[in-house]
Structure formats: C-alpha cells, structure tokens
Records
---
Amino acid sequence: MDLDRKLAILADAAKYDASCASSGTDRRDSVGGAGIGSTEGMGICHSYAPDGRCISLLKILLTNHCQYDCLYCVNRSSSNVARARFSVEEVVRLTLDFYRRNTIEGLFLSSGIIKSPDHTMEQVVRVAQTLREVHDFRGYIHLKTIPDASDELLRRAGRYADRLSINVEMPTEAGLKQLAPEKDTSAIHRSMGRLRLHIDEAREARASAGGSTGGSTVGSTGEAPIRVIPGAAPRPARPPRFAPAGQSTQMIVGADDSDDRSILRSSAALYGRFRMRRVYYSAFSPIPDAARALPLKAPPLVREHRLYQADWLMRFYGFDHEEIVDDGTGLLRLDVDPKHAWALAHPERFPVDLNQAPRELLLRVPGLGVGSVDRLIAARRLRRVRAEDLRHMKLPLRRVLPFVIVDGHRPGAAPPAPTRASGAADAGTGTGVVGGVVAGAPTQLGLFG
C-alpha cells in the first residue's frame, strides 16, 4: 500500500479523538540554525489551544489494526474498515515533510493495540525519540499512551513528548464494562497515577536543581547543555522535563446513558486525583456497522458544548461539580449556558454589587469572565465603578446588567427564568424556546469538511 493511501486511512481513523490541543508546553524554536520545528507559530489551522492560539497538528494513528473490540470504536477488531499501518520511519518522514511545508506545528500520534500494549507503546515512543534525537525536532509532540504499557515505556514517552494522554473513554466504570469489556478502569487509573507521579518527580527535581518549572528549554529533550569553563564552579545540569504540557484524557458523551451530573463528577475526580491538564468531551458519532447497544443517532452537539462550559466553571470559576447540575434531571440545560442557568436557579444571590462583592461572587455573574472580574477589581480600587464604565470595558451588558447593582444602575424585576417544561431544551431532541424563539435541533457536525 502506498504512503498516500495509508495517510488517507489513518488520518481519517484518528478524527474521533478530540484531545489534541497544544498548550502548556515549553517554548522551543530553531532560531540560530539548531534543529527543526518549534512549538509556536502558525500554519494551516485545525484546532484552537485554550489560550486562543490557532494550531495545526499532523493527527494520525500508527495503525488502525486493534486487538480490542470496543463497541463505540470504528477501529475495533470486528469492524469492517480498511486497515493500514505506518512504519516508524514513515511517520517520522511525514512529520518532517509536513512541517517543512509549513502545514503543521507538531504531531498527535495514537494507535490501535497490536500484538501487546508494550509492543505498541514501544513503536509510538520510537517515533518521538527519532524525531527528537536524530532530527532535533523541536515542535510539539502529543502521544497517546497505552494503559497497560510498562512503567519504563511511560518514562521514555514523557521524556520525548510534550503531552501524554490516556483516554478514560466512558464516564463511568459501568459504561466501560458495557461497551469496552476488554478495558479495565483500574488499569487506566493506575497509568494516570504513574504519569502524575513522574510529572511531579520531574518538577521537584528541577526545582531542587535550581531550574524553572516553566519557560524555555534548550535541546530536544529539555536538557541544558553542559559547558566546561576553566576555573568555574561546577553547575549541575537541569533534569529533563517530563511531559511539560501534562496529561489529558477524553470521554465519549452520549454512547451510554450517563447523565451530565455523572460526567462532571468523573471529570472532577480526574482533575483532583491525577491533576489532569484537560478533560475533553467528544459527542458520540454514529459509526459504520454499529453495535445494537449503541444509540442510533448522535446526541445534540450543544450538549458537548455545555459540558465544556461546565468544565470551565469547575476549573476557573470556583464552582463545585455538584452545584452545576443541581436539579432532578441530572442534565445541563441546553437553552442557556451553565453559569446563566445557575444564576436563574439562585435568585437569592442576586443582584451583586460590583463595587462591594468579593471576587468569588463576581465570578458567578453571567457575562463576567476571569479577565473582566480582574479589571473590575482593579478599577474599583481607584474609584467607584459606574454603569457607563461597563460599556467602556466592552462587557456584554444585556447579560450582565440584570444581575448586578452598580452606580447608575439597579435592575428592576428579577430576570425571567424559563421553566424546563416551556423553555428548556429537551435532551433527546435538542429543541427548546430561547428568548421566546423556538430553537432548532442542534445536529452533530462532521469533524472534517
């Protein structure tokens, strides 16, 4: 099979994995003629990092052959799809060729499980090692790790990759047993725990050696060069970074009957136990020759969007996962964002005085982001904030004003709170009333084209 055909098959097979944003890693470049690639810059953009940068990654599988038969996976062993497999050298060559053409900034590499977890992981690590050590590649590398791979292979992977990830797949252990009985939640969590331990150990080693835990690094693996100066006191080399962009994971939403409350509970546990950099949510997409245990259609894509918004509230706005979905349905409202829904459900907390309220309460006002709250706090140290100041700060006044008190403005009646019966989107159909207008049913968009 020629390389173009392999690329077509294995790039298409990788499109269901959403966890490929490149953020939080070291800054590296090839200025001065050293190496090739960088973790910055812009090419043909395919995804956005959390800090807003547009990034592009070569996103492929090493192979879509797999010995597992996960019902939700298009590459499962019983699936009737075209199969292909790259060699290590082919992935290296593709990565370098695409980078030289300025079409990518890095590599996202995953794989089906072939022969054994260790055999597969060893092949994946060899790609990253060859890029770093042979070609001095300084671009971004994200490796999908295999849960049952040996600890030594995980250590090697973290030495060469910017980010490592292990997909938890289903929000609950029961869901994983139902749809992927060959996979083990305990094994996944053990690997996540090992990765966290290695990341923490590397951070502590660098701190004790006097190195920074952030900023730029020199060399393909983050090691500082050793320079011998006659008469100078010896200086220990900084320990190498271990996966400086941390670890991430992904959950499939809508393949089983897990509600949003259980999904957010699982995410909160992953953030707390393993210090995940990100949890990604991927709305289930119907696949060819699907098993009968799977739903016939995808969930509304807005549900995935609401979960990301709720995830943001947990990570940056001080919300507990239990209070985000605090009604009897277990589902996030689809007609309004989670923060707005929380505010409507707690009228006793509003209106908030922008000149008096503490930061943690300001963060709960609909329409106020972290940056907006920081600007407000800085402004009110100088003088009292007035209503016209909000307009100069370019805040979304229609969202903010019904929930706040500020000099020159006091809200009238409480903001209308549509009920689920009349105004909330139905979780099954995605329809609802938004501001008196019937909203159409959101549809699952294709990931490419």
---
Amino acid sequence: MVRTLPSRRRLARALMLTPLVALGACKPAPDTAPPEQPTLSLKTATAPSGAKVEPAVYSPPLSTAPGALTSLAPLVDTVKGAVVNVEVQARARPAMGMRGLPPGFAERFGLPGGQSPFGGGGAPPKQGQGSGFVIDPSGLVLTNNHVVEGADTVRVKLEDGRAFEAEVLGRDALTDVALLQLKGASGNLPFVKLGDSDGLRVGDPVMAIGNPFGLASSVSAGILSARARDIHAGPYDDFLQTDAAINPGNSGGPLFNMRGEVVGMNTAIIGGATGIGFAVPANLIQALLPQLQETGVVRRGWVGLAVQDLTPELARALRVEAAKGAVVAGVSAGGPGAKAGLREEDVITSVGERAVDSAGSLTRAVALLKPGSEVKVSLVRGGKAMEVPVKLGTRPTQRGEEEMTPRDATPAPLSKRLGLRLSEAQDGSGGAQVVSVESGSAAERAGLAPGMVLTQVGDQKVSGVAEAAQALTAAEPGAALLLRARVPGQDGALLRAIEVPAR
C-alpha cells in the first residue's frame, strides 16, 4: 500500500532500532554540473548589514584518497539550518462515526481500518508535525500539502531554536506541494536552493533531513533508486525513488544531492518504509512556484482528451511506426482538442518541446503549460505524421478534488456585498465561474450556484473575473442586474437577475 507520510507524532513504541548498514567505502563519482536553470521570481533579501544573503551550498572536496569513506558531516552542517519543523493545529470537527472516516484516514494514523479514534463524542483538535525547508531568506518555506491541509494555525521551528507563525500562501493537492510565508521573519534566514532533478542519475547519492517521529533534524542517506515512478497517488505522478530512510514526519522535508541542492521533497512511503521512499522532483516544484506565490493555486493547461498508452498491438492496428506515444481514445465535446481538430485514434508523440511516450507523460506535459497558450501537438493519423496547433484551456476540477480559489479571485467588497466568489472559467472558453455562494446572500436569492459561468452582467459581456467584478461593483444600490450564465457541459444559457443591496 502506498501512502503519503502522516504528519502526526507516533507513540514511542512505534520506533524500532535496526542494524546500521554501511553505505560502502567507494568514493562517489563527482556530480556533473547541471544545465543553468531559470531564476525563480522570489523576493531578494539582504542581511541587516546590507550584504546579500546567499543560499547554503556545499562545495565538496576536490579529491579524496581512493577507498576512503567520505563523511557527509560538512554537507549536513552547511544545509541543516534551512530544514524546519512544521507544527499544525486545527479546530475540533464533528465526529463522523465508525464508518464515516475519509478514505485512507485510519491507515494514515495507524488505526485499524475504519475504526474511529474519537469514539462517539466530538473530535479533538487536530495536531500534527511535518518537515519543510526555507527557500528564500525572507521566510518562504516549502512543505507538503497534506501537512498543512485544513490547518487553522501553522508554526515553524528552525534548527537554531527560533519559531515563527506561518501563513499558507498556496497549496496544490495534486502534487502535494505547499508554500508558506513565515510571519515576522528577519530577512536573513538560512536557506537552500532548488537543484536540477532532471540531472540526477539512478545510483547518485542523496541525503534526507527531516523530523521523523518528531525526532528533529534527523539525517539519512542513500542513493536515487529510480526515476519517474507512478505510484497512483495522483494524475501527475513522476516521483523520485530513494532508499534513504524516509518515515512519518519526514513529510515535506528536503532530499539533497551532494552539492547541497534540494532535488526533491519527501512525500510518500510504501508500507513500513522498508527502504522505499518517494520525493516530488525539484523541477516540478520549481514550475509550480510562481503560481503558488502569486495566486495561491495552480491552474493547469487542458486539452480535453481521454488517452491511453500506445502498445505494439495498437501500433500495428493503427498502422503507425511510432514505438511510444499516447493514443486518443476520446475527445471532449467543445474542448480545446475538439476545437483544434484532434480525433480519436490520433497517436500523439510530442507536445511543444516535450516528447510524449505514454498517456501519463502527455498529461504531465500539458499540465506544465499555461492555460490560454498555444502549443504544437505532433501526432500520427492514418499512418501520416502531422502537427496541429492547439490553444489550451484550463483544467477543470474533477469530482472529488478540492476546489481552490485564488487569493485575488474576487475583490473583498464584492464577496461581502453580494455573497459571491468568482474565479476564471475552468473550461477555457471565457467568463467568470461561480466558486461559492453564501447562504442568505443576494447571489443565492438570484439563483446562482457554484459551477455556473457568468458571461454577461447587465449590458456588458464579460470574459473573465476582472470584467465581471467591475460590472457588479459599479452597479447602483437597489438596481436589478440581468445576468447571463452557462453551465459547463450543458447547451444554452440561463438568465438570472440579482438585486444589488445597499453598500
């Protein structure tokens, strides 16, 4: 069973001592310099003296005597100050009973399947622990989404004893990544930088630091065991696998290369973590950071296709010479792919600059692209190679997924005045989508409901949140505004009228 690491402190009886296994006496091959990576758009900080604050980067010795053991102590000393302990607490929630636990909850906390830890009474406050690491001296911290999801308060403790309250700037449940901002940080915190996870090779040495079972600043080491692992945790699985010891409490902690760069974020284990742990690649995190910092949510490109892997049997049946690719099994009506002319039985071999060798690689390649951008899709149709330009839409939230609202989605006065929260339409066709409607509000009385997409407010056609919000906030108190809306997946438009209350 694959599971994400629980952030709750286990009882001391859960700790088991195991024999120490030497990593070996061979000198590791020196890492080759990775290709230059784009600079993150993070805030620049200076120390109180005015000097620039630099990330913690370890410079390994140029040579070591053949056969000598290489100590990791200098590397640990260089980077451990940027690894933090993340403590979360949430308000008590009503108990759900023996059979009402969310999927995986009992297993995550070590309970017998389906057993309620709370008996018949109300649930106690949720408390938990995880790990994280500082990526900017101003106090930006990366951790796992499952560590801070649902938390009312987040407190971060540094290795030097300092502690800060933290704000959750952004979360992405589909990749289990969250970004925190420490409140009142001095601007000269120790920090580490993200490295190039694509430059890792299977067999390269790696090191993990975290807080397993609440044991702060625990260090473990091993090698990269495998790349691009799909453990069926989500649609964008592309995990690094390592045999460095990863345990409950390591969630959100860094996986380092031997230069002190973070190449992954530890997030999942198999069973009892018997030498099999998984980390989110640093390059994937790096691609998400700008959106998490700017809006707090991740919006992904979307083509609107159902795809499956190309097999040798399908290749022969479809008369294509390609050995790898993604076969289009279905096309969403009205979606970006349908509008671009993509068809069932097309074999997609690349998207933009990225080769596509499976259905999963196509999903990941499109998800890294910006909604609204145009990309060339290379495919084989009827034995002929061709390129099709596709304008990407925004991936809609799937059933069972949490609907995330950008921090700047709806101006506060609009939300308070009308009881309405909006976001950009997720189907990529323009308009302002209703995210939530407050009970008893003007929006509820008007018959608006989450999922509807506003395309007209009064006499004005609206193509997004900004235009819809401007038209709604400019309305005179007491006015009745005509709204035109559509429901994704349904034909025709709905007419609604909203009465604007006094300011």
---
Amino acid sequence: MTQTTATRAAVPALAARAADVGASPVREILALTARPEVISFAGGLPAPELFDAAGLRAAYDAVLREAPQQVLQYSTTEGDPALRATVAARLAARGLPTGADDLLVTGGSQQGLSLLATALLEPGDTVLVEDPTYLAALQVFGLAGARVVPVPSDADGVLPDALDALVAAERPKLLYLIPTFQNPTGRTLPAERRTAVAEIAARRGLWVVEDDPYGELRYSGEAQPWISAFPGAEDRTVLLGSFSKIMAPGLRLGWLRAPSALRRACVIAKQAADLHTSTVDQAAAARYFADADLDAHLATVRAAYRARRDALLAGLPGALPAGSTWNRPDGGMFLWVRLPEGHDATALLRSAVTHDVAYVPGAPFFATRPDRATLRMSFTTHTPDEITEGLRRLARAFE
C-alpha cells in the first residue's frame, strides 16, 4: 500500500473550551451591516472623524525621526516607561495614587483581561459578573474554563446584598465589573454600592477586576471614585484602562494596574503571549501625551457624543413600540432598551437589517438566562442627523 492511499488518522480535536465558546455576535453583526448604506447602532465604535489623526501622525513622525533604532526594536514586557509614567500621573490626578511601576501596558484592555484570566483562574473556578455583562469578558472566562455566575442587578448595577450572599455561597475567585457607563447597559454603579463592593471583597476575600474603558467619556453628573481607591481593597483590586476611546482603538493600547504579585504573574503571562506590546505604538502614544492637548481633544469628543446621545434619546419614543423602556446614561457609548413583553429583539433584527438599520440584541450579554426583549444601542458612531434617520428606519422595521 502506498503512502498516498494509506488510511489517515483523524485530526485531533480542538480543546473543549475552544469548541464551547462561541464567536461574538457583535462582530458578526458588524460584518453583516458593513454596507455603507446601513446606519448601525450595533458596534461600540468611536466616531472616526473625531480621531486626532494629525496629532497622532505628528507623534509617530517625531519618534521615528528622533529615535528610530529604539522605537523599532524589541522592548520590555512591562511597557514604555514614559507611557506608564504618564498614565500613572493621570490616575493620581483623579484620586488614585499610582506609580509607573504599578502598571503593565497591554494590547488593549481586552488583553489585560485575558492575562488576568491566565494568572488567576483554574478550570472550574467561579467568576461573578454583572447581569448582563460585557460579551468579550464572557468569552475570556469561557476560554479559561471558568464557571460564570451572574449577580442580580438593577438599573444601578449589582445589588450588594445579593453579591454578599453569592460570594458566601459560591466562593468565587473574582468579581468582574464595569462600574462606569457599563457595556452593554450604560449604567453607573453609585458610590455607596462601590463602597459595599470594596467591603465585601475585603471581608470575604476575592479579587475585583474593575474595567474602565469609558470613564473619561462623561457628559453629565458627578464622577465616581474607582473601587480600587477604597481603603481595604487595595491588595485585591485590579483596574483596567484603554486608549481606544480617548485616542484611537487601532493603536491597541491599554494598561493594567494591579498589586505587585499579580502584576508580575501577568507580566509572565504576557511574555508567553506576545513578549511585549508594539514599541513604536507605545512611543508614539507617549509622545502624543507630551505634545498634544489630550484634555482639549476629549472636550471636543465629549461635546459631540453628548449631542449624539441626546439625539438618540429624543428619537426613541417615536421609534420603539409602545411600552418600551430605556435608560439615560451620563456618559460612555451605549444605552439599554427593553421592548414590551412578547417582543424578541433577535428576531426583530432581521427586519431591521432589511431597512438598513441595526442594533445588538441583548440576549448574548447574559451569562445564563437571557432577556430576549432587550437590546443595546450605541450612539457614538453616527451624527445626530444620521441617528434621526436611523430611528426613522427602525420605526418602520418595528411596525
């Protein structure tokens, strides 16, 4: 028998965790609605016309002109010292004392979450999450083989008494929260509940991962303190941040602030994953912070996004079925809608797409029992006029 006609053995199977974790419905909807005529409320995309492309190009030009051999070379896993120092100073100015050595630069905050899962979670460990929660976090925890348990939540976020009871009963390894302008709901955890979360973490003994990609996009209301800043929780809280919403997501830059032992474990995990984040991108970001007025840029972005949020809120009563409810977020990129009983947002999306408008059904954001009447709408990508037209199309789809 020749080699070409010999029986071939089956290809070994994928790891169970890889086979069990599904693709992101958000990414699939983005592909479905990539046609330019579609007005999409689906993706959490910053407005591309608001990117400071000229300022970023100047920063890249400067570092490539002045130090090309350095910025095109391998670099340390921990990250560019100047960039870490700048982030540390911004955190300290907002009430969280931080040194450059407290930070690890990551390939977006999403990588930070993956590194934490690698460093902290064994298969079968329990993770507590908000209900609903960030879809890509559910993917990370699924790939880690964790058991994900939702914490009962209301319009303000997790309920402290329910959280305390779950921690006592489930003995979780960590609690994952997006306390400010949450994805997908846009809600913000009040200060008194943040205090309670920090106290529960200190008393019960668990890690709190505080993801804050949207905190600098506030349009109204008072800023809330980070959970990481509360006394008693310093040695068990991790803060994740991102440059995607304040500069540009294409940079793929974020950071992780954690106690030293956990941070060191994340450094080792990152060495195994990618050695280090792009040297030239980090150098350009640090130079941008030094040369540009980021706060002035953010003021422009906030003003534009506030107008877009308000346009969406103004048009929802005429676009949604009678009896629908929604919230009014003080910032971020999303708001949360619940259609009347009997409506299925996933089924209705098919009709919406035929009218060249889209949103994200809420069901995939739930760890266990989905609420199929819910949906997420992003207001940052389109202008107020485009939002108004998109809502006209949505009204026709919901007729």
